[in-house]
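Here's my example:
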Amino acid sequence: MTFSPIERRGWPFVIVLMTLTLIGVASLGLMPLEEMLPEGIEVPRAVLLIQPAILAVGATFLGWWAAPKVGLDAPVIGGLTDSNGWKDALAKAALPAAIVSAIVAAVLVTYAKLTIGEFPDGAAAASLPLAPRLLYGGISEEVLSRWAILSVILLGLIKLKVPATPAFWTANLLAALLFALGHFGVLFNVVENPSAFLITAVVIGNMVPGLLFGWLFASRGLEAAMLAHAGGHLIAFFILG
């Protein structure tokens, strides 16, 4: 693996990527966010979207700064905004993304089956609306976890003279771990005292897809990770009914 710097994309690219990321955040408005608040606290749903929106905007710019320094890119969006090469980039991403989608769906279905009974009143993650899974999961989480976090960690490791391949897999592993830990907020809101088994299942069930998304990001571009993330949720949704 080599991670040579590439030219940074222009402002049209940033605007499109940020808009897509904020659309993903907006899809969270379809969820009953108020029910996740502590008892007695009432906050309008729109206000609850402010923090993830700020994080999404910050991640867009952070990745825009860091990713090209280590040769990482979003070539489909870049091709669209530059009017150059988006079809080739999409074709290159399609098959690997489809394969990873199937693997991720298998992980999600296995997770759902193994954790039956771990959630109160059937309030499992599988009950989440489809739109946030596709839009927030497929777009916003990839911008946060891969575009921003993975790129920044990889840049730091390369600056420390860590060889390229170990640097990438270390960054990918850490980004996937942070991605998994980021689901703890919802977990502890839904389950007051989750078992060690459930906590382990959440970590593994998110880290394995996260590692695959990171590999797609590095090898096929950010959009491949987005497609695989959304595709995995879509397939699992129809399998689980």
Q: What stands out?
A: The chain has a mean pLDDT of 92.
